[in-house]
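Standup notes, protein team

Yesterday: finished cleaning the Rhizobium sophorae set.
Today: SDR family NAD(P)-dependent oxidoreductase structure.
Blockers: none.

Input for SDR family NAD(P)-dependent oxidoreductase:
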Amino acid sequence: MTRLKDSVAVVTGGGRGIGREIALQQAREGATVAVLARTANEIEQTVSLIQSEGGRAIAVTTDVTEYSAVESAFARIVSELGPADMLVNNHGSFQAFGPIWECDPVTWWRDVEINLQGTFHTCRAACPAMLARGSGRIVNLVGGGTGNSFPHGSGYASSKAAIMRLTECLNDTTIAHGVRAFAVDPGLVRTEMTEKQLFSEAGKTYLPGIQQLFDDGVNIAPSRAALLIADIAAGRFDVLAGRLLRGVDDRDVLEKEMDALAKADGRALRFSAIGQQKL
Protein backbone atom coordinates (compact mmCIF):
# COMPACT_ATOMS: atom_id res chain seq x y z
CA MET A 1 0.00 0.00 0.00
CA THR A 2 1.24 3.51 -0.78
CA ARG A 3 -1.50 5.72 0.65
CA LEU A 4 1.10 7.75 2.53
CA LYS A 5 3.65 8.03 -0.27
CA ASP A 6 5.69 11.25 -0.24
CA SER A 7 4.58 12.03 3.32
CA VAL A 8 6.69 12.41 6.46
CA ALA A 9 5.55 10.85 9.72
CA VAL A 10 7.05 11.55 13.15
CA VAL A 11 6.46 8.87 15.79
CA THR A 12 7.53 9.46 19.39
CA GLY A 13 8.16 6.55 21.72
CA GLY A 14 8.91 4.57 18.59
CA GLY A 15 11.60 2.31 19.98
CA ARG A 16 9.40 -0.54 21.12
CA GLY A 17 5.87 -1.82 21.65
CA ILE A 18 2.99 0.16 20.22
CA GLY A 19 5.23 2.96 18.94
CA ARG A 20 7.39 0.57 16.94
CA GLU A 21 4.31 -0.98 15.35
CA ILE A 22 2.95 2.46 14.47
CA ALA A 23 6.25 3.47 12.87
CA LEU A 24 6.42 0.23 10.88
CA GLN A 25 2.87 0.62 9.61
CA GLN A 26 3.43 4.23 8.57
CA ALA A 27 6.44 3.08 6.55
CA ARG A 28 4.53 0.15 5.04
CA GLU A 29 1.95 2.63 3.79
CA GLY A 30 4.66 4.67 2.07
CA ALA A 31 5.60 7.35 4.60
CA THR A 32 9.14 8.30 5.45
CA VAL A 33 9.37 8.00 9.23
CA ALA A 34 11.30 9.87 11.89
CA VAL A 35 11.43 7.63 14.98
CA LEU A 36 11.91 9.51 18.24
CA ALA A 37 12.71 8.34 21.76
CA ARG A 38 15.34 8.75 24.46
CA THR A 39 16.97 5.33 23.95
CA ALA A 40 19.11 5.38 20.83
CA ASN A 41 19.60 1.64 20.32
CA GLU A 42 15.85 0.96 20.45
CA ILE A 43 14.91 3.51 17.82
CA GLU A 44 17.84 2.41 15.68
CA GLN A 45 16.39 -1.13 15.80
CA THR A 46 13.03 0.22 14.65
CA VAL A 47 14.72 2.04 11.78
CA SER A 48 16.57 -1.14 10.81
CA LEU A 49 13.28 -3.05 10.73
CA ILE A 50 11.72 -0.38 8.51
CA GLN A 51 14.71 -0.42 6.18
CA SER A 52 14.67 -4.23 6.02
CA GLU A 53 11.13 -3.96 4.62
CA GLY A 54 12.23 -1.45 2.02
CA GLY A 55 11.12 1.68 3.85
CA ARG A 56 12.92 4.89 4.71
CA ALA A 57 13.42 6.13 8.25
CA ILE A 58 15.77 7.98 10.57
CA ALA A 59 16.34 7.65 14.30
CA VAL A 60 16.27 10.86 16.33
CA THR A 61 17.26 10.62 19.99
CA THR A 62 15.12 13.11 21.91
CA ASP A 63 13.82 13.83 25.39
CA VAL A 64 10.33 15.20 24.80
CA THR A 65 10.29 16.92 28.20
CA GLU A 66 13.04 19.30 27.00
CA TYR A 67 11.59 21.77 24.51
CA SER A 68 14.98 22.80 23.13
CA ALA A 69 15.69 19.13 22.35
CA VAL A 70 12.33 18.79 20.61
CA GLU A 71 13.00 21.93 18.55
CA SER A 72 16.38 20.53 17.51
CA ALA A 73 14.78 17.20 16.61
CA PHE A 74 12.20 18.82 14.36
CA ALA A 75 14.85 21.03 12.75
CA ARG A 76 16.81 17.90 11.87
CA ILE A 77 13.69 16.17 10.55
CA VAL A 78 12.87 19.13 8.31
CA SER A 79 16.46 19.27 7.08
CA GLU A 80 16.75 15.56 6.29
CA LEU A 81 13.19 14.54 5.39
CA GLY A 82 11.06 17.65 5.04
CA PRO A 83 8.30 18.99 7.29
CA ALA A 84 6.06 16.53 9.10
CA ASP A 85 2.69 15.66 7.59
CA MET A 86 1.83 13.37 10.51
CA LEU A 87 2.81 13.49 14.17
CA VAL A 88 2.03 10.57 16.46
CA ASN A 89 2.62 11.18 20.17
CA ASN A 90 3.03 7.67 21.52
CA HIS A 91 5.58 8.38 24.28
CA GLY A 92 4.32 7.59 27.74
CA SER A 93 5.17 6.92 31.36
CA PHE A 94 3.26 5.15 34.13
CA GLN A 95 5.55 4.68 37.12
CA ALA A 96 3.51 5.99 40.07
CA PHE A 97 1.10 3.34 41.41
CA GLY A 98 -1.03 3.61 44.52
CA PRO A 99 -3.17 6.07 46.47
CA ILE A 100 -2.13 9.69 46.17
CA TRP A 101 -0.78 9.90 49.73
CA GLU A 102 1.59 7.00 49.11
CA CYS A 103 2.89 7.99 45.66
CA ASP A 104 6.33 9.53 45.45
CA PRO A 105 5.65 13.16 44.42
CA VAL A 106 8.59 13.30 42.01
CA THR A 107 7.60 10.06 40.26
CA TRP A 108 3.95 11.13 40.08
CA TRP A 109 4.86 14.45 38.48
CA ARG A 110 7.36 12.84 36.14
CA ASP A 111 4.53 10.78 34.63
CA VAL A 112 2.62 14.01 33.99
CA GLU A 113 5.68 15.73 32.55
CA ILE A 114 6.48 12.99 30.09
CA ASN A 115 2.90 12.34 29.02
CA LEU A 116 1.40 15.82 28.95
CA GLN A 117 4.28 18.26 28.69
CA GLY A 118 6.01 16.05 26.14
CA THR A 119 2.88 16.05 23.99
CA PHE A 120 2.55 19.81 24.26
CA HIS A 121 6.19 20.23 23.21
CA THR A 122 5.95 18.11 20.08
CA CYS A 123 2.62 19.65 19.04
CA ARG A 124 4.07 23.13 19.50
CA ALA A 125 7.10 22.24 17.41
CA ALA A 126 5.14 20.56 14.60
CA CYS A 127 2.21 22.94 14.20
CA PRO A 128 3.81 26.04 12.62
CA ALA A 129 5.00 24.17 9.52
CA MET A 130 1.70 22.30 9.22
CA LEU A 131 -0.26 25.54 9.49
CA ALA A 132 1.99 27.23 6.93
CA ARG A 133 1.22 24.44 4.43
CA GLY A 134 -2.45 24.26 5.38
CA SER A 135 -2.40 20.53 6.09
CA GLY A 136 -1.32 18.04 8.71
CA ARG A 137 -2.60 15.51 11.19
CA ILE A 138 -1.65 14.91 14.81
CA VAL A 139 -2.51 11.82 16.84
CA ASN A 140 -2.12 11.88 20.62
CA LEU A 141 -2.35 8.55 22.43
CA VAL A 142 -4.53 8.44 25.52
CA GLY A 143 -5.54 5.47 27.69
CA GLY A 144 -6.78 4.34 31.06
CA GLY A 145 -8.32 7.12 33.13
CA THR A 146 -9.04 9.41 30.20
CA GLY A 147 -12.78 9.42 30.78
CA ASN A 148 -13.12 7.65 34.12
CA SER A 149 -11.56 7.50 37.57
CA PHE A 150 -8.34 5.50 37.99
CA PRO A 151 -7.67 5.78 41.75
CA HIS A 152 -4.33 3.99 41.90
CA GLY A 153 -3.05 5.46 38.65
CA SER A 154 -3.91 9.10 39.33
CA GLY A 155 -0.85 10.68 37.72
CA TYR A 156 -1.19 8.68 34.52
CA ALA A 157 -4.96 9.18 34.42
CA SER A 158 -4.71 12.91 35.05
CA SER A 159 -2.17 13.31 32.26
CA LYS A 160 -4.22 11.27 29.79
CA ALA A 161 -7.43 13.18 30.53
CA ALA A 162 -5.44 16.38 30.04
CA ILE A 163 -4.07 15.10 26.72
CA MET A 164 -7.63 14.44 25.57
CA ARG A 165 -8.58 18.02 26.38
CA LEU A 166 -5.36 19.32 24.82
CA THR A 167 -6.26 17.41 21.64
CA GLU A 168 -9.70 19.03 21.55
CA CYS A 169 -8.27 22.50 22.15
CA LEU A 170 -5.60 22.00 19.52
CA ASN A 171 -8.04 20.73 16.93
CA ASP A 172 -10.49 23.57 17.57
CA THR A 173 -7.63 26.02 17.06
CA THR A 174 -6.17 24.53 13.88
CA ILE A 175 -8.90 22.73 11.94
CA ALA A 176 -9.97 25.86 10.07
CA HIS A 177 -6.40 25.99 8.73
CA GLY A 178 -6.31 22.38 7.54
CA VAL A 179 -4.59 20.79 10.55
CA ARG A 180 -6.50 18.11 12.46
CA ALA A 181 -5.82 16.48 15.82
CA PHE A 182 -7.13 13.14 17.08
CA ALA A 183 -6.94 11.12 20.29
CA VAL A 184 -6.40 7.37 20.05
CA ASP A 185 -6.78 4.83 22.85
CA PRO A 186 -4.89 1.69 21.80
CA GLY A 187 -6.56 -0.45 24.47
CA LEU A 188 -4.79 -2.81 26.86
CA VAL A 189 -1.65 -3.96 25.07
CA ARG A 190 1.06 -6.16 26.58
CA THR A 191 4.05 -3.81 26.68
CA GLU A 192 7.02 -3.05 28.91
CA MET A 193 4.78 -0.59 30.75
CA THR A 194 2.15 -3.19 31.51
CA GLU A 195 4.85 -5.70 32.48
CA LYS A 196 5.86 -3.35 35.30
CA GLN A 197 2.23 -3.11 36.39
CA LEU A 198 2.04 -6.90 36.45
CA PHE A 199 5.28 -7.78 38.18
CA SER A 200 6.42 -4.88 40.37
CA GLU A 201 5.41 -5.05 44.03
CA ALA A 202 3.49 -1.77 43.73
CA GLY A 203 1.74 -3.02 40.61
CA LYS A 204 0.75 -6.29 42.24
CA THR A 205 -0.55 -4.42 45.27
CA TYR A 206 -2.44 -1.59 43.64
CA LEU A 207 -3.25 -2.74 40.10
CA PRO A 208 -4.26 -6.41 40.41
CA GLY A 209 -7.04 -5.83 37.90
CA ILE A 210 -4.48 -5.63 35.09
CA GLN A 211 -3.50 -9.27 35.64
CA GLN A 212 -7.17 -10.25 35.76
CA LEU A 213 -7.81 -8.56 32.42
CA PHE A 214 -4.96 -10.46 30.80
CA ASP A 215 -6.19 -13.67 32.43
CA ASP A 216 -9.59 -12.97 30.89
CA GLY A 217 -7.99 -12.72 27.46
CA VAL A 218 -7.98 -8.95 27.08
CA ASN A 219 -4.79 -8.27 25.12
CA ILE A 220 -5.18 -5.94 22.16
CA ALA A 221 -2.67 -6.39 19.36
CA PRO A 222 -0.61 -3.21 18.79
CA SER A 223 -1.34 -3.58 15.08
CA ARG A 224 -4.95 -2.50 15.78
CA ALA A 225 -3.84 0.98 16.81
CA ALA A 226 -1.20 1.09 14.08
CA LEU A 227 -3.73 0.33 11.33
CA LEU A 228 -6.19 2.85 12.77
CA ILE A 229 -3.53 5.55 12.86
CA ALA A 230 -2.54 4.79 9.26
CA ASP A 231 -6.20 5.32 8.31
CA ILE A 232 -6.17 8.62 10.19
CA ALA A 233 -3.01 9.68 8.37
CA ALA A 234 -4.72 8.91 5.05
CA GLY A 235 -7.74 11.05 5.97
CA ARG A 236 -10.28 8.27 6.41
CA PHE A 237 -11.55 9.60 9.75
CA ASP A 238 -11.22 13.37 9.29
CA VAL A 239 -14.88 13.78 10.34
CA LEU A 240 -13.83 12.66 13.83
CA ALA A 241 -11.03 15.20 14.26
CA GLY A 242 -10.85 16.37 17.85
CA ARG A 243 -12.41 13.15 19.12
CA LEU A 244 -11.44 9.76 20.52
CA LEU A 245 -10.87 6.70 18.34
CA ARG A 246 -10.01 3.30 19.81
CA GLY A 247 -7.82 0.41 18.81
CA VAL A 248 -10.70 -1.95 19.56
CA ASP A 249 -13.00 -0.18 17.09
CA ASP A 250 -14.10 -2.00 13.96
CA ARG A 251 -12.82 0.57 11.50
CA ASP A 252 -15.46 -0.17 8.85
CA VAL A 253 -18.25 0.22 11.40
CA LEU A 254 -16.62 3.36 12.77
CA GLU A 255 -16.54 4.88 9.29
CA LYS A 256 -20.27 4.19 8.85
CA GLU A 257 -21.07 5.72 12.23
CA MET A 258 -18.69 8.67 12.27
CA ASP A 259 -21.10 11.29 10.91
CA ALA A 260 -23.64 10.36 13.58
CA LEU A 261 -20.97 10.36 16.28
CA ALA A 262 -19.79 13.82 15.28
CA LYS A 263 -23.34 15.15 15.10
CA ALA A 264 -24.07 13.79 18.59
CA ASP A 265 -20.81 15.26 19.92
CA GLY A 266 -19.73 11.78 20.93
CA ARG A 267 -16.22 10.54 21.61
CA ALA A 268 -15.46 13.80 23.42
CA LEU A 269 -14.48 14.75 26.97
CA ARG A 270 -17.69 16.24 28.32
CA PHE A 271 -19.72 16.40 31.51
CA SER A 272 -22.28 13.61 31.65
CA ALA A 273 -25.66 14.46 30.13
CA ILE A 274 -28.75 12.51 29.19
CA GLY A 275 -28.21 10.91 25.81
CA GLN A 276 -24.54 11.87 25.63
CA GLN A 277 -22.07 9.14 24.87
CA LYS A 278 -19.37 8.86 27.50
CA LEU A 279 -15.77 7.93 26.83
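Follow-up from PR in the comments: The radius of gyration is 18 Å.
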